[in-house]
Structures
1.
Amino acid sequence: MKVELEADKCVASGQCVVAAMEVFDQDDDGIAILLTEEVGDDRLGDVEEAVAVCPAAAIRLVRQ
């Protein structure tokens, strides 16, 4: 699965980092950063949680 992040929508809540710290980080302003665009089954659940809890709906999963 591919992770897409619309950083311009990010409101810097940090929920994605809490849900999937191996996939997301935050810059100095708190805006989400993708650490990797590709996720395997081992991290899929965490990223699905990040998608669900993002208050700005800035994250999505795309099947390849």
2.
Amino acid sequence: MGEEPVIIKLTRDQAFVLSDWLYEVMMQSDKLDAIVPDRAVWSGIYAISGTLETTLPEVFMPDYAGRLEQARQRLLEVVGGDEDDEAGA
């Protein structure tokens, strides 16, 4: 029972932005230790990150930064607010 896969559905924009954030937290800093001190949780985080990285061709495209910013803006339009609002939250 514990090994049954769980399916999570994300929009492409959600997956792309999440993939970038996970990469930043996991590979570009030591933030993962601070955010998630329970190393048992890391297994799921690494599985999600690996799946996103192998599923999204955007992560290997030369215009990565522009595509990421466009995806972020589309998501912000859906949830409302902007970065100034997020910083104050």
3.
Amino acid sequence: MSEPDNPAQLSAGPEDRAPERTGDQESAFPRGLVIRLFAYLIAGHLFAGFLYLLFHVGTQQ
């Protein structure tokens, strides 16, 4: 049996194929990433609100 001239003609083995998605896998972000993103957004808004309050109180006479 001879080798094919074009390497693209070789069939991919099971280790070369992309994993198939099943219904059990999450198609979105990992849960930990979502929790961290939510926490950073809340913390960022609280910090921005605190800075706004400092500037607002600082401009009062």
